[in-house]
Amino acid sequence: MKGDLFSSDHMVQPAVVPGMSVQxxxxxxxVVSGEMLARQGxxxxxxxxLQFERKGQGVGGMLKRAVTGEGLPLMSVRGEGEAWxxxxxxxCFIVDIEAGDEFTVNGRNVLCxxxxxSYRIQxxxxxxxxxxxxxxxxxxxxxxxGLICDGNPLVIPVAPQQPVYVDTDAVxxxxxxxxxxxxxxxxxGSMLRGGSGEAVQLKLEGEGFVVVRxxxxxxxxxx
Length: 223
Description:
7-stranded antiparallel β-sheet
């Protein structure tokens, strides 16, 4: 069998490292030896002796999810083998989280992560219900986090005395020690006269990085 399809650009090569790695721009490969976690429905292929189980959230987790709308159903992957994960052909990236780090990310952008990472659902400070109820997942611990993004993300440095304002529908996540609040930049009259239409943005202050997708959020097919 010949053709461009079977070139080295597309052919899966033997794994050289355990754990998570970027297979290509649209997929993440995970060599499993024990357990890892991924969003339900994200596995596109696997080989080896692996078991996939829906991860329960318990009563507390279910209630929190119902209140926040932060719906990211997860599955655990256990055993020995390798699996490939993708979601709607979105671009894939990996974040290395070290002890003491804290990374806040929108649930819609989570693809998979090491079982050594822990997370909590948290209200975005300054947003609350008046901001449409902005809730994210805060990851801590030591391990790798696989993210998806509709297009190539923008990573914008935030410095003291130099805050960054982002569209709440476009923000992917941000690093620890950034203070968040809502910022209103347009009046109704201004929007009617041809303003940007972005009446409310998320303001980030402090020192760190904010990650933004190059498009606004679209309705999720899996919700």
